[in-house]
Amino acid sequence: MPVVFFGHGSPQNALGGNRYTDAWSAFGAQLRPRAVLMISAHWYVAGTRVTASARPRTNHDFVSFKGPVSSFEYPAPGEVALARRVRDLLAPVPVALDERWGYDHGAWNVLANLYPQADVPVIELSLDRTQPPRFHYELAARLAPLRDEGVLIVGSGNVIHNQEIGRNPWPDEPDGWERRFHEDLRRRLDNGDHAGLVAYEKLGPDAQLAIPTPDHYLPFLSILGLQRSDEKPAIVVDGEGTGIDGLGMLSVAMG
Ligand code: ZN
User: Ligand 1 centroid vs 41 CA: distance in angstroms?
Assistant: First the structure.
């Protein structure tokens, strides 16, 4: 199985109808995994946890979106045996089997386009907010055996995610930071500069504006951690958010 990172944007993307969701749908249509392991920006907690219920609920973990997405259901089954397998692969890092967390909107807005029938089992792995970026890059690498077992490992976040600027542009916002950071990131991705991308906090002021908090960027590092040395990144879709500043919608697959 390849590994893939999706720039997920708004919960409204669950309903499809734009060039990003069209690209996600096309990606899902040509790939039929046995299960999906989802690493989403929106499960950002103290500790490493994995969903372990047979029927995970659909979380509506946002307040600013009304209408159909506020009652959207993604009824894919979980897979407790796979959750245990993940726990074993990540040992000795302690992994809690979590029977309460369901699919958050970073998971279901992508999955609803990849597998609209919700007939592929899904488990989610949390991001540990107490750990540095390198931890997430290295931890994900230990999930590599799952790729040979038919499990599609998915990261869901946004490589540029500055909601403050997106909603209310700053008077002193420097010109061109988003374009510069995007070009720098794409160049490092093409060159396989994982060290530079992991140490993003040292990439300067443009990176600080693009990644004001780690949550939406860390799933990208998880997918980089799973990229094999003989695999080239394949862009699924790229661009800025529809009508929103401060959002990078890069989606990229490896393998
Ligand atoms: Zn998000």
Answer: 6
SS3 content of the chain, % helix, strand, coil (to 5): 40, 20, 40
Walk me through the domains of the chain, giving residue ranges and CATH numbers.
3-254 (3.40.830.10)
Q: Are strands 48-51 and 95-98 parallel, antiparallel or unpaired?
A: parallel
Contacts 24+ apart (CB under 8 A), 30-33: 31/1, 31/2, 31/152, 32/120, 33/1, 33/120, 33/150, 33/151, 33/152
pTM of the model: 0.96
Measured in angstroms, how far is the CA atom of residue 106 from the centroid of ligand 1?
5
Neighbours of 57 (CB within 10 A): 14
194 Cβ contact list (under 8 Å, min separation 6): 137, 224, 225, 227
Residues, Cβ < 5 Å to ion ligand 1? 41, 106
CA 107 to ligand 1 center in whole angstroms: 9
For the chain, how long is the longest CA-to-CA vector? 52
Distance 153 CA to ligand 1 centre (A): 18
**Structure confidence by residue, pLDDT tens digits, 48-64:** 999 999 999 999 988 77
